[in-house]
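pinned: reference chain
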Amino acid sequence: MDISYKWLKRYIEFSESPKELAAAFTSTGLECDQIEEVESVRGGLRGLKIGKVLTCEPHPDSDHMHVTTVDVGGDAPLQIVCGAPNVAAGQTVVVATIGTVLYDGDKEFTIKKGKLRGVESLGMICAEDEIGLGNDHNGIMVLPDEVCPGTEAAEYFNVESDFRLEVELTPNRVDAASHYGCARDLKALQWRRILEGNSESVELPEISLPDVSSFSVDRNDGAVSIEVADREGCPRYSGITIRGVKVGESPEWLRNLLVAAGQRPINSIVDITNFILLGIGQPLHCFDLAKVAGGKIVVRTCDEGTRFTTLDEVERTLSDKDLMICDAEKPMCIAGVFGGLDSGVTEATTDVFIESAYFNPTRIRRTARRHGLSTDASFRYERGTDPNICAYAARLAAVLIREIAGGEICGDVVDVYPEKVNPVEMDFSISYCCGLIGKQIPKSLIVGILRALEFGVESTSDDDVVRLSVPTYRVDVTRPCDVVEEVLRIYGYNNVEFGTEMHANLSKRTPVDEAYTLQQVVSNDLSGQGFREILNNSLTAVRYYEGNADFPIDNAVKVMNPLSQDLGVMRQTLLLGGLESIAHNVNRKATDLRFYEFGNVYSFDASKEKTDEKPLAQYSEHAELALWITGNLNEASWNRKAEPATVFDLKAIVFNILAKAGVEMSALKFTQGSDATFSVKLDIAHRSGKPLGVLGILSRNTLKLADIDHEVCYAALDWGYLCKLSAKYTTLFSPIEKTLPVRRDLALLIDASTSFADVEQCARKAGGKLLRDVRLFDVYEGKNLPEGKKSYAVAFTIQDPEATLKDKQIDGVMDKIIKALQNTLGASLR
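pinned: its C-alpha cells
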C-alpha cells in the first residue's frame, strides 16, 4: 500500500517528516521501510531556468543550427548552440544549464559544456518533451514574454513534490488499506503522547472524512433501479445515477495525488473512484448507463459455464457460485473483482451509475482465486470492508463527479441494506489487558487509545471492566486478546521494558526435549550418510487424494478458503511432497537422490464423535519421519561400477534409526505385503500391535502422481510413537565380553513365500539369550530345488558373555533353533 505524504495531510495534521512518519507507522505494526520522493514532473525540473534569447545567428558551419546568447539571470548571458527550427531572438524559453539532468525514457543524461561543430555551447534550449511537460518535439517551448529571466522552471510550472511511503500491510489490517485508515493510527499515536504527558488542557487531534454536505439531488427521475437476488453474497448494495457528465482529464490536484500513491490517472470518473478507494478504503465501480440494458442493476449469479469477457479482454468461464453484477439481460461485472469489457466508462460516456457495495468476503476470495485475478478492489473485499460506509462513499463520489465532470444527480442513493451489520460488543477487563501485556498501564491511557481508534467505550459497574463497541471496519477484532493487541501496538512494543530480574522454573528434561535430541541425532546421522533434509508445504493438492485407496479424500482435512486446488487440503502423508521434490530434481538432471523430512501429517475421521469437551475429536495430527532414495547409491568410478540403491539399503538405514532410538528388534513385528501405494512393502509394528512404520518400493501408480518413471524406495516412521518407545529404553554400558562368539551356518530349504524376517523372529525366540545375531548371507532360487521353494544360507552367532561355551551348549541352542524353524515355518536342512 503506497501512502502519499500530502494526501495524508488532507485527513490529519502532523509535523513529522516523511522519515519520522515511516518510523511512526512501523511502531504501530504498519511496517514502512521505503520512502520515495515523487514529483509531478520527473526530476522536478531542477537546473532548468527561464531564459530570454538576446541574439540568434546562423551557425557558421551548419545549415540548420543557430548560435544564440541567452539571459538566464546570471552575471553574463550564455552562448548556446540550438538546432530547433523555431528559435529566434526575443523569445522566452526554457534553458537547461550545465549540470542539469534530463531524462529520455529510462535513460538519463547530464548537460555538459561542449562544442557543436566548433562552436562552444553552455547549455540547451529545451522542447517540451525533453523536460517531461508534453510530447511535442517540433521545436523549443516558447513562453509568454512577461516571464522574468532567471526564474526557476519548477516555480513557473508549479511542479508538485510529494513523498510516497510504502506500507506493508499484514493480512488482518485491511482497515489500514487507505490513507484515512493510516490517519486513524497516526491520530491514536498523537493521543497516546498527549495522554502520557497528562496534558488534559491540550486539545486532542481529530481526523475528518471529506465533507459531503454539498450533496443534493438535481432531479428525481432517471435513477437506475437495483435488485439484489443473492443477499448472502451481497449484504449491502448502494448506487447512485448521474446523467450529463463530461468525461475528460482530471484536475491537476487529483492527478498529482494519484501519481504520488502509485496510480496512473485514466479519466475523471475512474480517477474519482480510485481517489475514494485509496482515500477511505471503499472500492467503487462505475458503469456506462448507455450499456446497461433495461435501466436496471441486478446482483445475482449466472449459470455454470457462462462465458464472460473482462476488461483485460480475456474470455472467462463463470461458475454458478460467482457473484455477478448484471443488467436486465446480461452480466456486466464480476462483483468485487473485475469489470466487464463492454460496460466500463469511456471518453464518450455521458451517463454513469456508481456502485458502492459490501460483498461477502469468502465469496469474493473464492471467485478471485478461481479466475486467477487480484485487483485493488478484490484485495479489500476479500479481507472485509466496512459495510456502513457504502452510502457515504456513493455520495462523496457523486459530489466529486458533479464538481469535476458536471452532470445531474438523479435521486438520492439507492441503498439495499435489509439487515444492518452491527458492531461487535464485548466486556473488556483492564487487569486482563495489563496482565497480557506484562505491564501496568493506566486505565485512562488504555481507554484513550481505544477511543482514538474509534472503539466505543462505556463504563460498567465494575471499575476494572469497560463495555466496548468494535467499529465495523475492524473485522479482525472479535476477542479481548485482539483488543489487547490494538492497545499494545499503539502504546508501543518498545515501551514494555524487560525487568531487572528473571524468574524461571528449572525442571528436568521433558519428553519434548528428549524428542528434539533424538531428532538431532537422527538428522546428523542421515546427513552423514548423504541424505538431504527437505521441508515441504503442509498444504497439498486435492488431486493426490481423489481415488486414493490408502489416503482417501474423505479422510483429508480440507482448507475452508483455499488459495487454489493445489493447496486445498492438509497432507495426510509426507510421501507426496517428497515425490514432488524428487521430480523437481530429476527434471534438472539430478537423479541420484536421498531425502528425509520431519513433519506433521493430518487426518479427519467422521466416525469419531465430537463433544463439547473435545470439539476437535474428529481431527488428528502426528509427526512422521519420511525417507526417500532413488538412483545410484554410489557413482561409477575407475575402480568400481555404479551401485543402484535398493530397498534393502533403505531397510538397513531404517533399522539403524530404530537402533539409535533404542528399540530392540525383538520388540517389533514385521509383515511383508503390497497395496496401492507400494508394490512391495514391509510393515513395522510394535509387539503390542500398534503400527510404527512402513518401508518398501513405491508402485507405478503412486509414482505417476508426480510423473516419475523410475524406481523410488520410501519409508515412513511414526516419529511421535518412536520417541515414546525410545523414552522407555535406557542405554546400558557393559564391559567387553571376555569370551569369543561362535558362528554356525545353516542352509535352509523353505517356502518361497517365507521372508527372512520370519526366519529371524522364529530363531531369536527359540535361541534365547545366547543367540546374539542372525544374518542372511545367501539366497538361492532356481533349478535343483522343488517348485515353490527357495534356499536361505543363514549365519547364527552364539555367545555367553560370562563363560566359554561348550559344544554341548552350542548344539543345544542350534537344535532348538532347527526344531523351531521346522515346526513353525516348515523349513528343512539342505
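why pinned: Residues 390 and 511 are 55 Å apart (CA to CA). The mean pLDDT is 91.
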